[in-house]
Amino acid sequence: MPKLTRREVLLSAGAIAVTGATLLPLGGRSSSAVPMPDAGHPAAGAHLADTVGAGAEPVAVATDPFTERMPVPATLQPSSTAGGVDVYELPIGHTDVDIIPGLRTPAMTYGGQFVGPTIRARTGRPAKVTFANQLTQPANVHLHGGHVPQASDGHPMDLIAPGGSREYQYPNSQRGATLWYHDHTHGLEADHVYRGLHGFYLIEDPAERRLDLPSGECDVPIMLRNAQFDETGAFVFGATETRTTILVNGKSQPYFPVAPRKYRFRLLNSALKHVFALHMGGATMTKIASDGGLLPAPIEVDELAISSGERVEIVVDFAAHRGGGPLYLYDGDTPILRFDVAPNRVRDRARVPDRLRTLPELGTATVERTVTMGFVDMSVRPPVGHVNGLPFDPNRVDVQVRQGATEIWNVVNADMDPAFLFDHPFHMHLVQFQVIGRDGGAPGPDDVGLKDTVYVAPKGSVRVQVTFDTPYTGKYVYHCHYLEHSALGMMATMEVVP
Ligand code: C2O
Ligand code: CU
After folding, report:
1. Distance from the CA of 47 to the center of ligand 1, in angstroms?
2. 186 CB within 6 A, ligand 1
3. What is the predicted pLDDT for the residue at 325?
4. 218-248: per-residue pLDDT in tens?
5. Do the Cβ atoms of 258 and 318 come closer than 8 Å?
6. What's the CA-to-centroid distance between 232 and ligand 1, angstroms?
7. Residue with the nearest Cα to atom 1 of ligand 1?
8. Coil, strand or helix at 217
9. Which residues surround ligand 2, an ion (CB under 5 A)?
10. Which ligand has the shortest distance to the CA of 142?
């Protein structure tokens, strides 16, 4: 018999029961409200075993794993569709939500839901969303991955005052893709997103329908993130970056009943700071899309990594698992979602064609730039995040790019203190790019397709090529998508000029 891998050992039921329990370490100490970057790989805090092993005290608050069903965030209904424009309204408010069974968690929400309602837009059909800020502090909304005019981008300084409201106009002229909307209030973005200001914005492309990919109930957005709670169920934020609870659509270790057929899962990492290392214990996942939509062709993978802000779409065919035991989605060694496959036979018309969508031509770059991201001096409290040696200044334009130009950006992780080397996922507003190199070599397996957010390892670098071919000009930001880092200044401004 072949030697069992660590994963296979975990597949035995006993190991899952122990590993799977969500224990909530006490988070009572709060000496500082300043988010402090911690050292090391962000996944280090995600494993319960590590936390317990390190002597953290588990408290009485525990949930039994896999007893709650994974919710699917409700789709927002337009208040009007007149004139071919979908009109929506969404309040931004303080809401107590159900995350831990038996406890209420004070959160910030879009539309009262901890994972905000899903907006399903369509390519070629504009939408207008009016957000009413019912918080006691400023807020705003960024459409991550959207090609939108500057006034609707949710620039970090362009805010909705408490009690105010604002209409964001989304042209939806881009191809189908899994986008998301989240808060981007400068300095507060990490706090706001951590407390729940995040939701899906799916652009459905009529051209995709002909492909017969899984649709309807079999097209499921899944938001992955982490969090830390105290014994009352309240979020712990600021005093620690240890976040031991993984939330899957807002629940810890939920289960999800599936029919024995194909499903399309739109995975989003909305964690402030975590790289999910996903696998299904050896079962095949067919990767079909990245941040900017469909890949040229499907790719069968056993595992995939998603850093903060990124999206990956996969198709999983549960037909082969009919009558078998449950399947799990794992983050590293931790099972985070259980799929229960129904025993009945079903007819499945969905398929994954060999060809999905061709990528736009790369073109020829006429400009090449180097963008460095990092902390210079970690002895300063709070530390200051830099891009090309400077912290974010909204009154400064860091780079000017010509509308329509094709450029290569060499993005370098440039932390200066060898004792504090972080990952820095790089995100650019307004456009998608293609990764053309990583760490001096070829792109990695997670770099395929159109991207707007990309993992950059400590001491690493990523080369991306981008064409600024949207109809929009103006000032947009690019930044580290560890939102605690952008809040500390790791962000800069590009101005697209005609
Ligand atoms: Cu998802 Cu500028 O952010
Ligand atoms: Cu960073």
Report:
1. 26
2. no
3. 83
4. 999 999 999 999 999 999 998 788 899 999 9
5. yes
6. 31
7. 144
8. helix
9. 424, 480, 482, 485
10. 1
Separation of alpha carbons 306 and 267, rounded Å: 9
CB atoms closer than 10 angstroms to residue 242: 18
Burial state string for 163-186 with b = 16 or more CB within 10 A and e = fewer than 16? eeebebebbbebbbbbbbbbbbbb
Report the separation in Å between the CA atom of 453 and the middle of ligand 2, taken as the mean of its atom positions: 12
Q: Which amino acid is at 426?
A: F
| Structure tokens that stand for 464 in this block | 């991306």
**Cα of 22 to ligand 1 centre, how many Å?**
29
For the entire predicted model, the pTM comes to 0.89
Evaluate whether 125 touches 170 at the Cβ level (below 8 Å): no
Residue 420 token pair: 């504090």
Digit-coded pLDDT (tens) for 411-467: 999 999 999 999 999 999 999 999 999 999 999 999 999 999 999 999 999 999 999
Residue 206 neighbours by CB distance under 10 Å: 11
Q: Are 453 and 269 in contact (CB under 8 A)?
A: no
Sheet containing strand 385-387, strands side by side: 385-387, 367-375, 406-413, 461-467, 433-438
- In 392-490 the beta strands, taken as DSSP E runs, fall at 399-402, 406-413, 426-428, 433-438, 453-454, 461-467, 474-480
Q: Is 309 in the pocket of ligand 1 (CB under 6 A)?
A: yes
Q: What is the pLDDT of residue 62?
A: 57
Ligand 1: atom nearest CA of 180 is: 1
